């Protein structure tokens, strides 16, 4: 379907022109910065990055809890086009990754395009002008293309536990760590045993007086082969041409084996689950405690974790592991499923993020004023190639539905999406188009393929319930195949899957570069 429209300059308060850009990008984590860099490399300079914080970095800026680090090797958890040769160890710490992103933003000239302290409050598609009208905390913008790069690990889950608002002590989520609060000698409760908890618990355990660890279900934990990068390996990363690319490829291909295994649960149980069971048996000699720490679900149904410090920390005398549901929180402590109230000075929430209810979706309104959150509530959280959504022209979601990886580096998916988005921006200009909107049929067919790929895998919602699944029992999170398949599908913008509108007249662009 093709239509022709005229575009004019919109006005803001006081009749002043609203700054207009070709592309507006929300967020400056790996997704947002990556899109910006690739736009610049393709000679597209008419864009802006809208960042709610005062610095770039996304999740690696926001998460500052003790022990915060990546569980994917840094040679792979980084941009292929901006490799770093001086990582301190195999797995980057939070500070290293934060510094890396700041350095990349500077070296690639992205920082002048960032509008800091600009929280996006709402964005609405203007059907007459065929552009996005974006309202921020610092003023309005319009854009032909809107890229939502705020990710899915940006808004924390606060558990709905009776009485939690009555607690008189300190409560903090791991992603909102209060470093001014001293934990030394205090009685502390930790709720949750996920990816964050297995990092901060070993870091705080030696300091606290006592630690109550509340777990509904134990996680599968494998050994983390973290080593200092030095000697010949360190020298080669810095000096030998092609060595970094070789190491990246080696790591990436090795992880693709996991995708093969996770599609075949019996094989995954024999290999990966067996590895985790051996790590548990070697680390925890007490049979009763080992039973408490053995998960009741298949490996990778929930995120597979890696740590050499978790099991030693939670076996210390000042740690108690408490299973089951929390009954309530009182003014002074927590009542567990055993009915006992345990007094604590502080509660730390390691309860993860809103992965299947994206807060950004509440702020995005597409054709007919329909909110993305409402569209997903009615029809399920779905997108085409994890990136575009029927009814939302010129909107591109980074790390959208079914792009989460359970086996490899999320940056691989991000780079694949970046290629797709940048090619879409170029296609709009080359073809003289004002808008592109994925067809509902194409989106539905794509999601049926996703369902077929999930069927029978370790992530199959029929046999696995986790934070990957939504309230309907569907898995809108995981990419259930190897990354090569996704990369092939997003290498070029497939215009045939889209409805388009042509651009009749020239646009006037306001300069938003700082």
TrEMBL record:
Pfam families listed in its UniProt record: Pyr_redox_3 (PF13738)
UniProt keyword terms in alphabetical order: Monooxygenase, Oxidoreductase
Q: Does the keyword Oxidoreductase apply?
A: yes
Which SUPFAM superfamilies does this entry report, sorted A to Z?
FAD/NAD(P)-binding domain (SSF51905)
Q: Does the keyword Membrane apply?
A: no
Single GO MF descriptor: monooxygenase activity
Gene3D superfamilies (UniProt xref): FAD/NAD(P)-binding domain (3.50.50.60)
- Name the chain's protein: 4-hydroxyacetophenone monooxygenase
What is the originating organism of this protein?
A: Kibdelosporangium phytohabitans
